[in-house]
Hints:
- The chain has 429 residues and is an all-alpha fold.
- The protein is built from 18 helices and two strands.
- Strands 1-2 form a two-stranded antiparallel sheet.
- The chain is globular, with a radius of gyration of 23 Å.
Amino acid sequence: MTVTATSTPPPAAPKVSGGKGGRTRLSFPVILLIIAGGLLALSAVRAVTGAQDVTSAGQISAALSMAVPIGLAGLGGLWAERAGVVNIGLEGMMILGTFFGAWAGWQTNPWLGVLAGVIGGMLGGLLHAVATVTFGVDHIISGIAINILALGFTTYFAKLWFNSGDAAVKGGSPKQSPPADDITSVTIPGLSDWLHTVEKHHWFFVSDLAGVLGGLVTNLSLLTIVAALLFVVTFFVLWKTAFGLRLRSCGENPVAAESLGVNVYTYKYIAVIISGGMAGLGGAFLSLVTSHIYNEGQTGGRGYIGLAAMIFGNWRPGGLAMGAGLFGFADALQLRNGGESVHALLLLLVVVLAVLAAWKLYRKSFVQGVVSAVIAAAVLVWYLATDTVPTEFVSATPYVVTLLVLSLSAQRLRMPKADGMRYRKGQGK
């Protein structure tokens, strides 16, 4: 009897370019048009409702400050997931960054505090890499464990280090560190004042644009500039270099990558450690720029919101930056006691939901269209029947925006194909 040997076909080459399986890539001009359209909508809301703070320089400056740690956490998630490792532990790595950044910042100088925060986050990333890459622990379980460990570690050592000796004399307590010095902020002289003057005229769109630009050139922290550069560097490294191609191939098809000579374990380790460092930098930003002290619980779930921004951005830096800006804007509203502003944005939400309903009905998605229309009508009734929104709802605004954005954008996303999957060396042989 003749036995026919069936050979296993070689693994498919990794598809790392995004392709047609995901939503269409957004070019830079298209992104600018989207931003201009959003600003035009906000300008119309401001003109109709009289909520002048919606596009004020103060609101934009606060939004930028809130967006940076969210964006850095999302950037950390992007590095890890592009290599195939889900990093739910970003929240814990941010907590480590806030703690070590404040601990080193008040004793030395804030820039050394930034470095300490990055190292703290990288240690969390290293732990996650050891668990998921070397030992094959489920990525979600490992990430949750890191979040719990980070919270317990910082709670214990805050009581030990900040509640006695020189730290207690300088304002430390079991739940917070002594204050650190400020990181230098820059303001473009002349331009900032001129933009503020234009903003005060409340001209349609022009004053709104002046308010946005004024928020970007007034009291801008140097660490914010560093964060913006990291987005550019990430795009260049991951999409324009051979190193980035190999790293992304580990998240798309690690078997094929290994067959081409890529050390998958090494690239996963590098990606997850960098991921932790990005999250740690976001945590250090919170403790050294936003508040100048470590406070227990000050991350407030921003690691998870960073993941949401990354998903909204379709695992790409440009979309991630837009998502972080949106969440930062919502976060800034609740910090500035924006009951009036949030109420004004209800009108914008009505328009967005109405357009979405019309689009779904046009595409014959009748259930989704009807649901969107009903929600739009309910929000319109809420807007017309009230003059402001309750403080509790204002505080929940960032999380409500997170849920809305994910529910509206999750249908055309393309995650890396091997994201979250266990990989053992040589499993393709």
